[in-house]
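Hi R.,

As promised on Friday, here is the backbone we talked about, encoded as structure tokens. Could you run it through your design pipeline when you get a chance and send me back a sequence?
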């Protein structure tokens, strides 16, 4: 039995028309920049409509993702994610990655892995990123897959840089703003598939989709399918989560840990998770044993700054009343520390 009933959901995350920033007047740009600033200060997340990535292209990307994950395991593993987290490219089978929220020692990571994440993923990045070359399937295994993903990457890349422009405007960062700190576009395009799973398994915490965590780069773009299940923690009430449902024609954008540090916590790197979608959340009793939570697909795009960028409090984000909270750290050093925890054995 697979649940198909729909539930109306409200979310605390603002919805902003980003087309007014992309093509508006100076006054429009400033207004949108301040709205995004407010969203990131309050929630750490924002929905952007009018973002410039057209729906037809997004639909094609989801179709390619499904084709890839429908391949036999033996075929998918022809593009294997290397051991460890230093080279984050290729295919990861269910259970290989386990998200961790600032857990770095072996004992803490082992404890987290007692409840495996039931998902699979495929990672690719900028074709010019020599530090992490892409790992593709042989072309005859899925003809056209590589070409499409390489064409989709620049669309997301351009959107990240325009959002950075908006944040620069919100903070009054002098020209050329924050975009040049991401000039190498060391970004990561991830295809995610959460296979269908028994509702009872999730409710009894035998397996998880993704446990509560924050992202560790600067910005994340997220395109979701219609299934739902993403939840965002209330920054004012830790432990209380609210749905972040798919919004038609919108990309969900959130702040990562590096940007939170950079802004001296002006912007929130909010904890989020993927759990039981609302369409099945209210089912209980004997019916629960028969219910399958449907497959879920999502496409996150993770941004981080150039490797040697020193992350320390930006001007305007600290003063005598708001002293710097964090020691300076390079973008690459911080990301590698977090990646090592994801793939620790």
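Update: got your reply. Pasting your designed sequence below so it's all in one thread:
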């Amino acid at each position: 039995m697979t649940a198909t009933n729909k539930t109306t959901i409200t979310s605390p995350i603002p919805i902003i028309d980003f087309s007014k920033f992309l093509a508006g007047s100076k006054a429009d740009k400033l207004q949108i920049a301040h709205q995004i600033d407010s969203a990131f200060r309050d929630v750490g997340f924002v929905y952007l409509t009018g973002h410039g990535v057209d729906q037809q292209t997004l639909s094609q990307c989801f179709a390619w993702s499904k084709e890839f994950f429908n391949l036999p395991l033996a075929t998918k593993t022809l593009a294997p994610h290397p051991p460890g987290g230093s080279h984050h490219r290729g295919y990861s089978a269910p259970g290989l990655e386990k998200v961790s929220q600032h857990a770095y020692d072996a004992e803490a990571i082992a404890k987290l892995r007692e409840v495996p994440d039931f998902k699979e993923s495929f990672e690719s990045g900028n074709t010019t990123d020599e530090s992490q070359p892409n790992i593709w399937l042989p072309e005859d295994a899925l003809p056209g897959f590589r070409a499409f993903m390489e064409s989709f990457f620049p669309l997301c890349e351009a959107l990240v840089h325009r959002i950075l422009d908006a944040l620069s405007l919100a903070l009054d960062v002098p020209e050329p703003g924050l975009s040049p700190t991401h000039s190498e576009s060391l970004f990561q395009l991830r295809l995610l598939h959460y296979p269908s799973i028994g509702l009872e398994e999730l409710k009894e915490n035998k397996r998880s989709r993704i446990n509560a965590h924050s992202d560790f780069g600067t910005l994340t773009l997220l395109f979701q399918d219609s299934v739902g299940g993403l939840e965002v923690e209330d920054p004012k009430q830790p432990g209380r989560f609210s749905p972040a449902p798919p919004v038609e024609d919108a990309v969900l954008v959130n702040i990562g840990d590096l940007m939170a540090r950079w802004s001296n916590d002006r912007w929130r790197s909010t904890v989020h998770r993927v759990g039981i979608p609302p369409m099945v959340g209210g089912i209980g009793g004997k019916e629960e044993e028969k219910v399958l939570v449907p497959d879920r697909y999502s496409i996150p795009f993770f941004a981080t700054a150039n490797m040697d960028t020193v992350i320390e409090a930006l001007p305007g984000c600290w003063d005598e009343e708001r002293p710097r909270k964090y020691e300076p750290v390079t973008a690459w050093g911080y990301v590698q520390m977090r990646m090592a925890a994801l793939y620790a054995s």
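One thing I noticed while checking it: The chain is about 30% helix and 20% strand.

Thanks again,
M.
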